[in-house]
Amino acid sequence: MPTPPGPPAADTPAPPSGSAAGEPPAAPTAPDGPPADRAGRLRLPRHARRVWLVVHVACSVGWLGLTAGVLALGIAGRFSDDPDTVRAAYLAQRIFADWLLIPVSLLSLLSGVLLSLGTTWGLLRHRWVATKFWLTLAATLASIFALRAFIHDAAGQVAAGTVPPDGRAPHVLVIAPSVALTIYLFATVLSVVKPWGMTKRGRRLAAEARAARTGRPAAAPGR
To answer: Please, are residues 150 and 172 in contact by the beta-carbon 8 Å criterion?
Structure first.
């Protein structure tokens, strides 16, 4: 799932106070585990966040380009009058599906989830992030378990010389990549625009974080 630009800075914790009046604060000690925010949520260190951001952007852009390539081959296979072009198109699609589709889609999904959980954006705190997550999850499962099966079926037919009566595979190898490409472009727009604000859960967590900073009870989040 395409990632948002760099997440907002983490809350800065208040300096520790002394154990008694007039005493200097105790020297801070390095934490044993990974850094976390006030709610105890795991926070990725800056260098790790940058590494995963590079991985996520590269895989997301690669997935977008891969889908565009599969769509171009699907169009060529469906509408070309040259049997050699039809054969080459579906055999090339099978290579893309076997060698690139699974690792690229899974890395894009998993790196996006890790970046969401490891930064202040969260996975279900903002509506645009949650929408991207569900869209990417659906696209990943559909690509691996449905689109790949259609590609294998078409490639097997042309390899065996048993193509459909019209000499072309079904429209699904044009429709499915078109839908997937639309989803990925929409997810890219969400990454840039970031619409819709926070979810109910996100507002509740934000209220709890403010209450922890101010020492006041958290107010119930509005609709």
So the answer is: yes
